[in-house]
Amino acid sequence: MLRRILHAGILVFVILTATFFVIRLAPGDPLNRYFSPDIDPQAMDAVRNQLGLDEPLPIQYAKTLGSFVRGDFGMSITEHRPVSDILKEAIPRTLLLTVAALLLQILLGVLLGMISAVKRYSALDKTLSFVFLMFYSIPSFYLAFIAIALFTLKLGWLPSANMFSLHLEPDGFSDIVFDRVLHMILPVTVLAFGSAAALARYTRGSLLDVLGQEFIQTARAKGLTEGRILWKHVFKNALPQILTVVGLSIPFLLGGAVVIEKIFAWPGMGALMVDSIFARDYPVVLAVNFIAACMVILGNLLADLSYAWADPRVKLSSHGGPAGG
Amino acid sequence: MREKNGHRIRSVVPGVGSRTSGWVPVVFSIFFYLYLTVVITRMPAVVAGWNDPAGIGLFEALGIMGGLVALYLGAVVPLWLDRRPAGKTLREKSRRFWTNRMAAIGFVVFLLLASISLLAPVLAPYEPSAQIDPALERYQSPSMTHLMGTDRFGRDVFSRVLYGARVSLAVGVLSVILASIFGMLYGAFAGYLGGWIDDVSMRVVDGLLAFPRLLLLLTLLAMFANSFSLVVLVLAATGWMGVARLVRAEVLSLKERDFVQAAIATGAGHARIVWRHLIPNALGPVIVAATLRVGLIILLESYLSFLGLGIQPPTPTWGNMVFEGREVLIGAWWVAAFPGLAIVTTVVSCNLFGDGLRDAMDVKTG
Amino acid sequence: MQNLIEIKHLSCSFHTEDGLARAVDDVSFAIRPGETLGVVGESGCGKTVTALAIMRLIQDPPGKIDRGEIFFKDRDLLTISERDMRRVRGNEISMIFQEPMTSLNPVFTCGYQIKEAVTLHQKVGKREAMEKTLEMLRLVGIPDPEMCAKAYPHQLSGGMRQRVMIAMALSCHPSLLIADEPTTALDVTIQAQILELLQSLQERLGMAVMMITHDLGVIAETCKRVVVMYAGQVVETADVSDLFYDPRHPYTLGLEESIPRPSHKGSKLKVIAGRVPDPYNYASGCRFSARCPYAEKRCFEESIEMRETGPGHHARCWKDVTQASPSE
Ligand SMILES: Nc1ncnc2c1ncn2[C@@H]1O[C@H](COP(=O)(O)OP(=O)(O)O)[C@@H](O)[C@H]1O
Ligand SMILES: [Mg+2]
User: Fold this and answer.
1) How far away, in angstroms, is C11 Cα from ligand 1 center?
2) Residue A49, φ and ψ in degrees, nearest 5
């Protein structure tokens, strides 16, 4: 277990380093955007000096590393305030969105995958499989547009922008919560659907794998009901693999959040990422990448842990989950 | 003698006797003749516009001819193969594949899209970026003159969707090929050499897989100027890890097999063993995985275009076309709806085809 | 004596991409209480399918029981409800399988899997169920039942796992145990132990056993009556001694001649030439005719019925093979 955490630590470090150099070696000067070319070069240098952009790259790198360890992500070039402050606002919003989507994804994906597997080769299974494939193949922005066109523009049922209503006169806390939930429905659903479809496909496949194994026949020969066989014997066998896929879906959710947050004007990390990329706000880009990598690695660590918990054949000391392609 | 003659015709003219070799050459033959018809009927217009700088260039003409050759080969090569003993298994496999009707539909649609993308210059009724008269022609609903309506600048959406197919398919196919080749070499050598090299290489793969791919792509693209080749390269650079893992797993099991052990025992060089023995035997799963990945890449490319970081307007891509429709989702739904539909169709057909291929070749891709 | 179970005209088929496989075709036989019946035949001849049909465990799709009756204690198992059938499975009829490696669920402890069967069919509390589990493990000769109950299948050897399977199958004292090649996957020494165990348990618990095997040696050691199957059909039924000393079907004859015997040391082993026919398209006539050294014109044209050749001895052959000589 300790080894796992150590590996995770190294991974974060490597990702941080890679991102830093990719960003800094790329052409384009962040300052060009904010100053006209004919500005006094001296003033420009002053700003550069203030931001620490004039030092040699290795020194900048060392400094960046040092401050990251202390939890200091530097100053945002565009917003003129500490990146950590910006992140403090953005992270919880993104977490709200992605965690809700993750839960919905697990619920929908596992449940529908199970239904499909239980009714294998029936018309229902075939229909469901095709629906999974559709949602798996649809870009989330397109799904978002369809949902917005339908539920916001045509029917006017659901809001499709921002996290809360601008002119809401809250009548107590529950109103605020209700308003927030209302604003969450569309982005969360759209974000969850794609990965739910992938999870459902995978769940169906691994349940069918398990259903074809001999010990299922043993369980049937014991006189167990199909329901009990499914929930106990099949599910517990498929669980480790399903958990791995859930773990692997975290980067997809975070990536998906970029698009979803832009479309639904949800001011989280994803939107921040896109904005700061266009603005070449290095410290922010670096920090967002760093945080996202940390989240993914943490998620995978959790998935590994639950994998080991679910499968008695796996001991934590041995490394590497199941190979996935 | 007659027998022999029959064979000669059979293996030169697409469609003749191809039924006996399964459905793949049949489909290719049908496409070949359709394609040929389009090329021949539109040829006068093409030749007439030869000197027009906005007309069909040499590069595009070569592409069109290349497509014709590819379809021809698809129609006849299976027949040649079929005369070898190995042909039996090819037929057997294609038969199993055909029983999965959805997979066959996926294949046909994909072939259709590939043909369309190559033929775009002769099929499209308008120049994709021709702004005929923005004030008059903007946001026209679908009609006979504009099958899919027009957009904000009065450009013909149908023509743009046709041209968009080229970007999507080219990006998808090229970057998957690149990623597969690199991933295959990487995985084969890691698995073959084993030991700490394997350990370290797989850690690297784990690390890259742990990264949210879209963020990585955005970072890379934003930092360098974005062009077609860069998009392809970047998508390939972030997409080889799955193949590497797959091939490594395959190689690890192949390595223990007798024929590889025998090759090692006879003192064959590392490169030779990997190249001659390991990679060919691991090819099946790689092909299946690659087919499934084309869909994924097309999807990713559309995300990049949508976010404005992919291939830049005015080159039409399905992603940036959907983006352009964002403000008129109801009023001019066709602007976003058709390119979006094109993405879904393409990705679904790739996935159907890949799923079918996987079942037919009976490989696991994890 | 009354039969415990009687199978009449059982036919099962599988619908697959390659067509229709007639895996079991008009099979009839009976087992008396407390008796051991051997079912023998080459692999692929439909032994497992017959057993699964008795348990009503053939998966549909692709399989189907097309026809037949299975009378067990005066009820036709093929007509009772699924609910009633579940009360029979594991309780009155149990089954053990060929592969001890894969027939136990890897994610539950052995103890749990036995206990599950006990609590399902018997009205007992948790404590009692656990005691019963340990008792069964002791009964099948496991030295440290407590340890074994806590172990996961992958921590045990093949022989031990098969013992666990047996303990599980017998935990509700069934009146019929179907053992589908219980020793095929085991080492030779372990095989003998398991067979011995099954025999002693049968005597103690007084159950009937349907012993499926492709090994005539196992039959000779354990059974009283034998059913020989070939290509989905029963070709001969007889008492064990009749079968060995007076076989009436050329296939049985061939099987026996292909057993290595010390008395025939030095002489060449005979094998049955040819291959098992394809269940997807059987030719007309006797299914063994293509490989039969005694085959005549009639054998290729008419389908042959079972015929009584002696008291309690039936064979699917119209010729008297003890008199005939090979026709080549
Ligand atoms: N799941 C299945 N799908 C298709 N065919 C099957 C299946 N199970 C059994 N069969 C068919 O039934 C025949 C008999 O199989 P089986 O009873 O398992 O033979 P054995 O005597 O070796 O136990 C096989 O030859 C096969 O054609
Ligand atoms: Mg069997």
Assistant:
1) 13
2) -65, -40
Structure tokens given for B56: 């069909």
What is the DSSP track for A97-119?
HHHHHHHHHHHHHHHHHHHHHHT
Q: What percent of chain B is predicted at pLDDT more than 70?
A: 82
Q: Which of C18, C48, C215, C235 to mutate to test the pocket of ligand 1 (most atoms within 8 A of CB)?
A: C48
Buried b (16+ CB within 10 A) or exposed e, A152-165: beeeeebbbeebee
Distance from the CA of C44 to the center of ligand 1, in angstroms? 6
Nearest Cα of chain A lies from the Cα of C95 at a distance, in angstroms, of 6
- CATH top-level class of A86-280: mainly alpha
DSSP-assigned beta bridge partners for residue C310: C313
The closest CB to that of A222, out of C61, C99, C116, belongs to: C116
What single DSSP character describes residue B314? T
Contact B366 A251 (CB under 8 A): no
pLDDT of residue A107: 94
Reference A307, options A293, A322, A296; nearest CA is A322
Give the model confidence (pLDDT) of C158-175 as tens digits: 888 988 999 999 888 899
A62 with A15: CB under 8 angstroms? no
Q: What does pLDDT average to over chain A?
A: 81
Give the integer Cα–Cα distance in Å for A219 and C114.
Answer: 10
In angstroms, the CA B241 to CA C117 distance is 46
Give residue-wise pLDDT tens across range B281-329: 778 888 888 988 999 999 999 998 888 888 887 888 898 888 888 877 7
Q: Identify the bridge partners of residue C24 per DSSP, sorted by sequence position.
A: C12
* pLDDT for A13 beyond 70: yes
Angle in degrees, 0-180, between the axes of helices A173-211 and A235-263, rounded to the nearest 10: 140
Distance from CA of A224 to the nearest CA of B (A): 31
Q: Is C47 in the pocket of ligand 1 (CB under 6 A)?
A: yes
pLDDT computed for residue A317 by the predictor: 41
What would the pLDDT profile of A207-251 be if each residue is shown by its tens digit? Answer: 998 998 889 999 999 989 888 898 889 988 888 888 888 888 888
DSSP tag of C15: E
Distance CA A304, CA C31 (A): 52
On the question of pLDDT at B51 being above 80, the answer is no
pTM, two decimal places: 0.82
Judged by a CB distance cut-off of 8 A, whether residue A277 touches chain B is yes
**Residue contact A313–C106, C-beta within 8 A:** yes
Q: Which two tokens stand for residue A152?
A: 């916001």
Domain residue spans of chain A = 86-280
Do residues A196 and A108 lie in contact, with contact meaning Cβ atoms separated by under 8 Å? yes
Average pLDDT over residues C246-263: 78
**The one-letter amino acid at A26:** A
Main-chain phi, psi angles of B353, to 5 degrees: -60, -45
- Residue A321 binned pLDDT confidence (cut-offs 50, 70, 90): very low
Residue in the block written with tokens 């500005």: A39
- DSSP codes of every residue in A248-268: HHHHHHHHHHHHHHHHTT--S
Peptide bond before residue C143 is cis, with ω within 30 degrees of 0:
no
Nearest to A221 among C89, C104, C105 (CB): C89
Q: Which range (A125-134, B196-205, B323-332, C55-64) has the least confidence?
A: B323-332
Among chain A residues, CA nearest to B339: A142
Task: Return the partners of chain B (3 or more C-beta pairs < 8 Å).
Answer: A
β-strands C307-310, C313-315 pairing:
antiparallel
- Given a cut of 60, whether residue B53 has pLDDT beyond it is no
Q: How far is CA A95 from the centre of its chain?
A: 8
Q: Which ligand is nearest to the CA of C41?
A: 1
**A122 in contact with chain C, both atoms CB, cutoff 8 A:** no
* Cβ count near B137 (within 10 Å): 18
- Give the closest residue (by CA) to ligand 1 atom 19: C44
